[in-house]
Amino acid sequence: MSGCKLIAVREGRLAKLVWRLLLLLALISASPPPLHAAEPGRKQIMILHSVGREFRPWNEYARTIRAELDGQSPWPLDVQEHSLVAARSADANSETPFLEYLHALYASRPPDLIIGVGAPAASFLQRHRQQLFPAAPVLLTTLEARRVQNSGMTDNDTVVAVTHRFLVLFENFLEVLPETKTIAIVNGDSPNERFWRGEMERELKPLEGRVEVRWYDKLSYEDALKQLAALPPHSAIFWYQMVVDSAGIAHEGDRALTRLYSVANAPIFTHDDAFFGREVIGGPMHSALGSSRTAVGVAVRILNGEKPGDIKTPPSEFAAAKYDWRELQRWGIGEQLLPPGSAVYFREPSAWEKYRWQVVFVCAVVLLQAMLIVGLLYERRRRKVAELEVRQRIAQLAHVNRYSIAGELTTSIAHELNQPLGSILVNTETAALMVDSPSLDVNELKEILSDIRRDDQRASEVIRRLRSLLKRAPFEAKEIDLNGMVGETIDLVSALAHARGVSLSSMLAGAPLPVLADNIQLQQVLINLIVNAIDAMEHLDESQRRIAVRTARNGDSAEIEIADSGPGILAGKLNEVFEPFYTTKPKGMGMGLSIARTIIEAHDGQISAENHASEGALFRITMPLAFSAASAAAAS
């Protein structure tokens, strides 16, 4: 401690030398006041800083006072700012050179108003009121009411003070952090800071036994930081000031609080919003802006001629609590713990707040797409239902159409059945006579029985084909050989063609033509086209009535062509023959070719009509080949 005193004495002597040197320079360089000082209406203001221009919280108040003066003053202003560096030490003799410096600086014209910022500046002005421009009005601001020496106040002085209520502050801390067991108070060791330690100890006595209060003002700031970095769980830090630590080191600017924030393991509270915005959580605090506006309002009244002693301003209390959202998030403090009416600053906007219109637009687009998809799915379902209904109706029409075709085939079918049945009857009668004969020829009898079996099979085949044609069954696609289907169909209609005097020939592809199809429906299409061709040649001579059916492979497709030697299709009607209800027959319904096109398209095929260059019409059916393993083996 003796070393610290020696340092303080040396600093005091050095300060005296500095102030005497400044005074000497001021006297040497003394010159007539600047031209603007004589400008009518210009007001000269002296602002005296406590300790230094960059010490919080006073620097924030001084800055806002300057800004408010510029905004509220109706006169041109000449503002001079000075720092009471001597307030960093307890050596009263160090103030003398500073007094001499100010006297020399304002010798030609005393200031129109002196504004003291902070308790050290106010104490200096009140102690030296008689020596320092006794006629100049003085406004003391940014100090607590207890730091005002009321006995030293003159009619030419006024004060805009604040009131510290430390117990209110600490009760608020404990409300926000109810599990707090330890409160570390960061405060320096300058005369002003030592005063406030005593005041805080007195006010916080009701908290004894509830929380542990720790002090660090008798440590160097380096040692204090080490202990503050290792606080026990459920601790809080109260930042008051750090002007000068116990080692006599001044901590100007923001570095002291910034260093504390970088090592602290507990949330930091404070009493003044000059410290608010980066390191502290917040709470009830004095408002730098509010107090500065009040002080400047008083300053303008004084400059306007009002007597300072007549202006009485009650001390301001803590403003409404405000908190830093970022620090609340860092320490996991829920907003539900904050006092009612608290303001939360620096809240990071949510995604909804940042991108509200983008989110609304995207949601609208998604909703629109969802509605569109639902609508399309609904329409798709309706279409499928409609397609199923249409397919059922087409199947019914096709079945009716097959009955109509069967009616046309009745005569030829009856003739085709009569032949085997008549042969069976003759062979049966012959066999009966041979049985009654005394000399029975067994070989001949066997031949007769063989003929009966052949005729029976022939009749059965005719009935099977007819039953297959008239069979009412759902669409069943399976792999069939197109050549086999065409050959079976020609056998079925050959009797009709023979009865109508038509020459029916076929030329089938040499290799199988496997297709995925419903055999009965394809037979119906082919029969319909052949019967139409037979009807179209009704007025021709029998020698001219010819129908040729051909199958072939064309790439990955199979083709069936039905060509006749009739009059062909009327010009301009080639595109209409497949439309419903179009017919050239007197008693026709016009549904046969429409049904045929529907059946072929259901098999992923195509049907077309054209006229031969010479004579007759040609209908062509194209269907995709089925390349299954079985069909590939058959083709090879």
Question: Topology, please?
Answer:
Blueprint: H1 2-28, E1 43-50, H2 58-72, E2 77-84, H3 95-105, E3 113-117, H4 119-127, E4 138-144, E5 157-162, H5 166-176, E6 182-186, H6 191-203, E7 212-215, H7 221-228, E8 235-239, H8 255-263, E9 268-270, E10 282-283, H9 288-303, E11 322-324, H10 325-330, E12 343-345, H11 351-354, H12 356-436, H13 442-470, E13 478-481, H14 482-499, E14 503-507, E15 514-517, H15 519-536, E16 546-554, E17 557-564, H16 592-602, E18 606-611, E19 617-624, H17 629-635
Parallel strand pairs: 1-2, 1-3, 3-4, 4-5, 6-7, 6-8, 8-9, 11-12, 14-16
Antiparallel strand pairs: 10-11, 13-15, 16-17, 17-19, 18-19
Helix pairs in contact: 1-3, 2-9, 7-8, 12-13, 12-14, 12-15, 12-16, 14-15, 15-16
Short description:
With 636 residues, the protein is an alpha/beta fold. The chain contains 17 helices and 19 strands.
Radius of gyration: 58 Å
N-to-C CA distance: 113 Å
Q: What class, by secondary structure content?
A: alpha/beta
* Arithmetic mean pLDDT: 82
Name the poorly predicted regions.
1-12, 21-38
- The quaternary structure here is single chain
| Biggest beta sheet attributes | 5 strands, parallel
Main-sheet strand order equals 2-1-3-4-5
- The number of strands is 19
Question: How much helix is in the residues?
Answer: 40-55%
| Portion in strands | 15-25%
